[in-house]
Amino acid sequence: MPRVDPLRELGRTLLVLGGLLVVVGALLYFGGKLPLRLGRLPGDVVHRGEHTTFYFPIVTCLSLSLGLSLLFWFFGQFRK
């Protein structure tokens, strides 16, 4: 099995993290202009009482969980 260069692996990791930072930054920057915003998806529970507000973003949590699971599965396929 060929030996892996640690500097090359570090470079790859930094490139992936940099790409993720760009994507997250773009989502945060343009998030207000998107038709469906995280935290305000249809199905998120909001109950406004007289003196309290209860907010439970169930659909947002499910969407993030599905997206992260798919992302981790996708990157796991590269490691094999």
Question: Could you characterize what this model shows?
Answer:
The protein has 80 residues and is mainly α. The model has no long low-confidence stretch (mean pLDDT 85). It is elongated and about 65 Å long.
In short:
The protein contains 2 helices and 2 strands.
Write the layout of secondary structure elements.
Elements (H helix, E strand, L loop, with lengths): L5 H25 L14 E4 L4 E4 L1 H22 L1
Antiparallel strand pairs: 1-2
The quaternary structure here is: single chain
How confident is the prediction overall: mean pLDDT? 85
The strand count comes to 2
Poorly predicted regions:
none
Strand content: 5-15%
Q: How are the strands of the biggest sheet laid out side by side?
A: 1-2
Total count of helical runs of at least 4 residues? 2
Structural class: mainly alpha
Helix content: 55-70%
- Tell me the major beta sheet: 2 strands, antiparallel
The helix/strand series, from N terminus to C terminus, equals HEEH
Distance between the termini: 14 Å
Rg, rounded, reads: 19 Å
What would you call the shape? Answer: elongated
